């Protein structure tokens, strides 16, 4: 298999010295494409970021006093609490971009059993809200997040702008991956 040149290309008309070659950090060298070497680097960044983020949300919620939750459970609790109004299972699944509603349903049942989420039925519709206890865990989570994560980030205006730009890029890329998944499913 041919090796891909990962050095930055320079314009011969440039009088400055070219930058030294940069080794790309990828998880699967066999997936590196000559059309976008950066995509493999991005995917590796997503893998390690997702794992670090998952570890963070579990440890933060555990520090808030609610243990034995998976990363998805924590995120479902936060989404149910979002804006203080009831959510249907389909809404939680849709906003979190999770096709397998049974995963969300399992988390909701677990959160109900722990007493941090309540449910109410209106005909066939079931809506979920956080209980007083659930809201207290979420409040403590926020406090710990401010003290441990936000304070450690020490973001200034420039860094916050970069974080915002990255958030936009991640939403764009999620759409690209969703479209590619639909295309692959039709093969």
TrEMBL record:
* Keyword annotations from UniProtKB, A to Z: DNA-binding
Residue span(s) of domain HTH marR-type? 69-134
Keyword check for Hydrolase: no
GO MF term set? DNA binding; DNA-binding transcription factor activity
Q: Using the UniProt annotation, give all residue ranges assigned to the region (Disordered).
A: 1-23
Q: In its keyword annotation, does this UniProt entry include Acetylation?
A: no
Q: What is this protein called?
A: Winged helix DNA-binding protein
Q: Which organism is it from?
A: Piscinibacter koreensis
């Amino acid at each position: 298999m041919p090796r891909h040149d990962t050095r930055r290309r320079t314009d011969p008309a440039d009088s400055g010295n070219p930058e030294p070659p940069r080794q790309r950090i990828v998880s699967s060298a066999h997936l590196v494409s000559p059309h976008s070497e950066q995509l493999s680097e991005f995917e590796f960044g997503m893998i390690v970021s997702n794992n670090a983020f998952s570890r963070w949300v579990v440890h933060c919620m555990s520090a808030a006093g609610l243990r034995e939750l998976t990363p998805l459970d924590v995120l479902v609790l936060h989404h149910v609490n979002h804006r203080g109004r009831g959510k249907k299972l389909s809404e939680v699944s849709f906003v979190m971009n999770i096709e397998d509603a049974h995963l969300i349903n399992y988390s909701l049942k677990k959160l109900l059993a722990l007493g941090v989420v309540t449910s109410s039925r209106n005909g066939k519709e079931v809506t979920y809200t956080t209980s007083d206890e659930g809201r207290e865990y979420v409040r403590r989570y926020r406090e710990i997040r401010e003290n441990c994560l936000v304070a450690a980030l020490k973001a200034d205006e420039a860094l916050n702008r970069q974080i915002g730009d990255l958030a936009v890029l991640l939403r764009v890329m999620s759409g690209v991956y969703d479209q590619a998944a639909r295309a692959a499913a039709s093969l």
